[in-house]
Design brief:
With 362 residues, this protein is of the alpha/beta class. It is 37% helix and 16% strand. The radius of gyration is 19 Å and the shape is globular.
């Protein structure tokens, strides 16, 4: 059974199974279990806390500085979707980073482009694929396979876009469907998305917060509590309701995008994914050598991924291109709060990169 989290029911249906608030694992233990291969990251969840007053202030500054850019990219992405799909559109966002984007696209498609749309948000997990039960559910509702468009906020290294393509190909083979497994994002740093409004590493404001900008849901969970016919799981942080920004953020973002739709604008054009892919490959190869890292999963390029590391993982190092840039102010604050060393690298092709600390050393 779907639910809408803290969003209005017309904005999204989360195809996730709410799980009880229990069984949390602290970040250090979780990191050790993941890196030692004893547990998969999707089996465990660390508790979330509300952002500090200082951090919330940085989020508000990011909204002031970059909400217009994000709104323009949402509008451009909606235009590209309208061009590439005929008839009603079924938006399937990847929870959580894709959810706010999907909410806004679900408003823009009918209002600006006259296209009926429905929005579901589903789980995808690295090495486990997309939630197949959720995909089956969407088809059972009568949505045409060719109407489905997968949505996320951004790409970092392209791991999830490749995971999605492989999982959807497997689903199509099993079901005899022809769902497009391409990923549509606002910013494609890895050059692996099917379509993106941009390849720029800019501060997407919703990347700063966790549950309180994503319908009060946790990262998705796939453990023994999930049966074969269940959706992937999540925790619903109802206790954060008084601090929730999900609806107000989506309302503001959609309003700015709708205002831009009334102004003359050039035709939407997809980003240069080949150039982004070349930059990503070159950086990753150099970073592994420079920092003595053997596992690419320990390197998280781009503001969005760097933020996730500082919020949810055990960071080893924060690298920024310009320590005085507004785009990285929240990262510097988090690094300071968590005693994570920071270095400035003017040659960095992104605003920021976070490295994850090995939990297996010593």
């Amino acid at each position: 059974m779907s639910f809408s989290g803290s969003y209005d029911a017309a904005d999204v249906s989360f195809l996730l199974k709410p799980l009880p608030l229990q069984g949390f694992v602290d970040v250090a233990e979780k990191e050790y279990l993941i890196q030692s291969g004893q547990r998969h990251y999707s089996e465990m969840l660390s508790p979330e806390s509300l952002p500090s007053a200082k951090y919330l202030s940085v989020f508000e500054q990011a909204c002031s500085a970059n909400m217009g850019r994000m709104a323009a990219d949402c509008l451009a992405l909606a235009a590209l979707i309208a061009e590439r799909r005929s008839g009603p559109v079924t938006l399937v966002s990847l929870a959580r980073a894709g959810t706010p984007v999907g909410v806004v696209l679900n408003r823009l498609l009918p209002a600006v482009f006259g296209r009926a749309s429905t929005h579901y948000s589903v789980s995808i997990i690295r090495d486990r694929g997309i939630d197949q039960v959720a995909l089956e559910h969407i088809l059972v509702q009568g949505h045409a396979p060719e109407s489905i468009v997968f949505i996320d906020g951004w790409t970092g290294k392209g791991v999830i876009s490749r995971e999605l393509a492989d999982a959807v190909a497997e689903f199509n083979l099993r079901r005899g469907t022809a769902i497009d497994g391409g990923l549509y994002v606002l910013s494609d740093l890895a050059g692996t998305a099917a379509c993106a409004a941009s390849c720029d590493d800019y501060l997407i404001p919703s990347s700063i917060l966790n549950a309180t900008v994503s319908g009060l849901i946790s990262r998705s969970i796939l453990n023994d509590a999930i049966g074969p016919d269940d959706f992937h799981g999540c925790v619903y942080y109802q206790q954060f309701a008084a601090h929730d920004q999900s609806r107000s953020f989506a309302d503001s973002l959609a309003a700015q995008a709708l205002a831009l739709a009334d102004q003359p604008r050039p035709p939407a054009a997809p980003s240069d994914k080949e150039q982004a892919a070349a930059v990503s490959r070159a950086y990753m190869l150099a970073a592994l050598v420079q920092h003595g890292i053997g596992d690419v999963n320990m390197v998280k390029p781009g503001i969005g991924e760097a933020t996730r590391v500082l919020l949810r993982r055990t960071p080893r190092l924060l690298i920024v291109r310009d320590a005085g840039a507004a785009e990285v102010a929240h990262l510097l604050l988090l690094a300071q709060e968590k005693n994570v060393p920071m270095v400035q690298d003017r040659a960095l092709p992104y605003h920021a990169v976070s490295l994850i600390r090995s939990a297996l050393d010593g």
